[in-house]
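Batch job 17 of 40 flagged for manual review because the log was empty.
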Amino acid sequence: MTSTPSLRPLHPSDAPELDRLQRLAYGDGLQEPTAALLSKITLAPEFCFGAPADAPGRLAAYLLAHPWPSQESPGLARVLTALPERADALHLHDVAVDPAHSGRGIASALISALVDAAIAHGFDLITLVAVQDAAPFWEKQGFCPIRPAVGYDEGALFMERRVGKGAVS
C-alpha cells in the first residue's frame, strides 16, 4: 500500500529547489524567473505547497497557485506585485515533480491539497493552462478544457475544475 505523500507550505527559502525542479520538469523551454515564482508564494502562501524529498532541504515536487479572475491567465514569467481585487477563482500556476519521484501520487496529493484549500477559502473554481500536451493528465484530475490559451505554446489549453458547492457529482 502506498502512503500519502507528506506536504508542507512553500517558503521563499525554497527558491533553489523551485529552480531545480523547473529545469527537471520543463527543460529550457518554460522556465520562469525565480522572482515570478516567489511572487506567488509571497502573495498567496496558503495555496503553495511542496512535497519534501528524502534528502534534507530537497523537494520532490511543488505546486503554486493564487487567486485570479476566472476567465484570465496571468501568463508566464510575470512577477505579481498584488492580487487582483476581482479574483473569483484560484489559478493553478504550476506543478513540477522531480522525475525521480514520478508515479508516487505526489502531483495528485498536491492537487488534492489545493482543492481543500480552495474550498476552505471560499473558492469554487480552479483554473490552469495545460502546456506540453498535459491536458490528458489534467482531465484525469477533474479539469475540463475551455479554450486554447493565448500567449503559450501551440496546443496549450485553458482548463477549469469546479470544487466545493460548484462541483458536479
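Reviewer: the log was empty due to a logging misconfiguration, but the result itself is present. The mean pLDDT is 93. Unflagging and moving on to job 18.
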